[in-house]
Amino acid sequence: MQPTIGNVGIGVNTPSTLLHINTTARTSGTNVNMITLSDTVTGVQTSGYGKRIISTSNNGSSVSAIAFEEDGGTNNDTAIVFYTQHTANALTERMSIRRTGIATFACQICATSGVKFGNGTGTLNYYEEGTFTPRIKNVSWTSNEGSGNAGWYTRIGNLVTVGGTISWGGGSGAQGNDLRIVCLPFTSNSTANSRNVGQIGAPGGDSIAYIQACKGQFVIVNDPNQASMYIIETYQSGTWATYTHGPTVNNSGVIYGFQMTYHI
Q1: What is the pTM of this model?
Q2: How many Å is the maximal CA-CA distance in the chain?
Q3: Would you list the domain boundaries of the chain?
Q4: 18 near 8, Cβ under 8 Å?
Q5: Are 245 and 209 spatial neighbours (Cβ–Cβ below 8 Å)?
Q6: How far, in Å, CA of 125 to CA of 156, rounded?
Q7: Measured between alpha carbons, how far is 149 from 181 in angstroms, rounded to an integer?
Q8: For 57-115, how does the pLDDT look when each residue is reduced to its tens digit (9 = 90+)?
Q9: How far apart are CA 164 and CA 140, in angstroms?
Q10: Ramachandran assignment for 121, one of left (phi > 0), alpha (psi -120 to 50 degrees), beta (any other)
């Protein structure tokens, strides 16, 4: 002990902190138990109770704790639980490591460097949800937003899933020629030929016209390095399958539902 400054040392003559414990018993590749918390309870334990290390400040109002609790209602199953508070006298469990090894969190997890799973080589480092305003466009015309226009998206890592409903107006007659859904929330990956495919739901009456009646169907295709999706009609030409960028939409209309997942 150093009486003049109040530091206590165990196994050390000049303790550098209020409590300084040193051991010469540990060698490389071995463990040494330095501090033991124990009690006299025996038999079946009540889950959620045990021994705590408490930190306090502000005359005891600011409190946090690490608890060593019994877990599972048996004799020897244990957990480590971390407690914090956002106001005085409101100590609350925030994180725990249960007897099974599973870590649980009471609130959200903020992993600033991302999350790595198992033996994977990549790191999941992005998640976002939001809305956007999709519109219909061709090479010379962009629609006005309709009253039922709505888009949503979820981004997980480098994959974005978008969906919604498109309604439009403000045209001056039928529109075609490289018809697209524009204003996607993210631009797709720029790798050559790395396209993405999605689908549209149900067009409203007189909203979009087939080039090849009774032979076609509509798909949406996102090209590399684009924040848009082409509305493409695939159809049968003789015995072959082909496509066109030229579906025609009316000067106002609606497509009830579209969805695509694309790589960014």
Answers
A1: 0.70
A2: 99
A3: 1-26, 47-109, 128-263
A4: yes
A5: no
A6: 8
A7: 12
A8: 999 999 999 999 999 888 899 999 999 999 988 999 999 999 999 999 988 888 788 88
A9: 24
A10: alpha
